[in-house]
Request: fold
Amino acid sequence: MDYSAASAYTYAKMSAMLSRLFVGEGAMPLFEAKSLAGLWDIVFKTPVPQLPESLLANKIETEAVNRFISQYEKILDIFSSPDPFLKALIKRFDVENLKLISASLSLNEMEMPCIVDLKQYAELDYSAWPDIKKITANSRFTWYDKVPLADERVEMDIRLDLEEIQFLWKTVHKISDSSRNVLVEYFQKLFSVRNMLWALRLKVYYKMQNEDIVKKLFYVSKEPSPEDPICRYAYEVLSRETDNYDAWKNWRFASFLNFYEDGNIWKIDPVWIEQKFRFGEAGRARKIFHENPMTYASLVMFFILKQQEVDCIRAATEALRLNATKADAMFASGVQFEEM
Reply:
């Protein structure tokens, strides 16, 4: 279909699908499941596979991702020429697949790991397993031409994430319809917050010095700097003492801080802040979806919401597998956030 007809058709189709998504308040039924079999029934409404609990947990997560990708690919196929950014979003799974393949090969595993099938949208040649050089040939990742040693894999994974962010940032600026500015603003905020949370983790959990943290920041210009479009939030946390509440009272995200009581020992909690950001993400994505009907923004927000749904299904699965509490599972997935 041409752009106008495809946009109208997909918007109606996605609107109907969003009404049934397990995100936000709609995810609550996931956490009511008493067993993995019960969770399968809630999510898929098909006969439960006859598998041991451990394998059923993996099956739920795998099928949730496959359903998400299949639905999104069918929407892309409606367009005679999908915008490059719409295809760039799905290529994120090429990055995750490459990480899995690299980890398996570094452990000398003989079978290819379970990867996400991107069909015609795959950038990597998965048929070349186990030759990683051939897998990455003719892709953005030709530099990833050997199996890394165990102590090299983390750094290479970080490089993959950096290149993916830079690829998305470059591509979102080339969106060809009226929603480009909306999406640039959305992803600038998203990447900036993730960068800030990454800096906080390095500062709090790994006790890194500021100059070392800067070297590990994500950036979309030539190098990390306070002027980089996605680095400003991260630089703002570097000079603040992590155990001094007064140092954070005027921070732009002060309302996201973990609870403080005068006279008690306090330390900033990156997990608390991250979960508070996650709480309400579904509402923000839905708002953008409905405020920009029949544009690329609505398709992108559909992708974002479906990704959140997969995260909620994974959280519910892990909670059942590990016998975690319902409250902990909902907190981990950003579905429920209660102030202390």
Notes: The chain has 14 helices and no strands. The chain has a mean pLDDT of 93. The longest helix spans residues 296-322. The two ends are 52 Å apart (CA to CA).
